[in-house]
Write a structure and sequence with these properties.
Layout lengths: L1 H12 L16 H53 L1 H20 L7 H14 L3 E7 L3 E2 L3 E12 L1 H12 L5 E10 L5 E12 L2 H6 L2
Antiparallel strand pairs: 1-3, 2-3, 3-5, 4-5
Helix pairs in contact: 4-5
Length: 209
């Protein structure tokens, strides 16, 4: 009881302004020294956290992210490896399909014959041709468009038969830009652009550089 009373008396007699005078720290009351020690320890712990532990935590989080990314990459590669044979088979099938499509594209020497095929298809459908001619080629990234301008007359039924016949040709021909004008109660005039395509050969690409 006497020691507690003494400590209380020391606190009462202690001037808080003396906290700025560290030369007299030895005569500060014990409770003040205790509180000051706690503050110093807390400051050191806080500084240690922000200067070291926080950096370690950020590094840990970053490494966790990297581990997750590596795990995902590994799983993707493992999946590809497990399905490698299937992908090879699909690649072979795609190459075969692409080769088949290329065979359906006319070569440069076959284009006039293709125009004749379109003409014969139209005549066989009952259409009357006012004009059919090749337009200028349009070069795309990997192929060349060969537009064929067509001006014909006939009935709706004739047009439908013509479109079906063109779709059945052994070479790829697509129809675009229909323009139909009534001629009389039975016949119609139709302007249409048929397009066929030619694959760009590597030699053609080199000459265009």
């Amino acid at each position: 009881m006497s020691s507690m009373k003494q400590a209380i008396d020391e606190l009462r007699s202690f001037d808080i302004a003396d906290l700025s005078d560290f030369d007299n720290i030895g005569v500060w009351p014990a409770p003040v020294k205790f509180v000051l020690t706690l503050l110093v320890i807390a400051s050191c712990l806080s500084a240690g956290y922000f200067l070291h532990i926080k950096n370690l935590r950020e590094q840990y989080v970053r490494q966790q992210s990297e581990e997750s990314a590596l795990r995902q990459t590994f799983e993707q590669k493992a999946f590809l490896a497990a399905n490698l044979e299937q992908y090879r088979d699909q690649t072979v099938e795609m190459e075969a399909a692409f080769s088949n499509l290329l065979r359906q594209l006319p070569s440069e020497t076959e284009v006039p014959g293709l125009v004749d095929d379109v003409t014969n298809t139209g005549l066989g459908s009952g259409l009357e041709f006012a004009n059919i001619e090749l337009s200028d080629e349009v070069t795309q990234e990997i192929y060349i468009e060969l537009p064929i301008e067509i001006d014909v007359a006939g009935s709706y039924h004739d047009f439908a038969t013509f479109v079906s016949g063109v779709a059945a040709l052994p070479r790829i021909v697509t129809l675009h830009d229909f323009e139909i004008v009534r001629q009389d109660n039975v016949f119609l005039n139709m302007n249409i652009t048929a397009k066929t395509y030619r694959y760009k050969e590597e030699s053609q690409d080199l000459t265009n550089l």
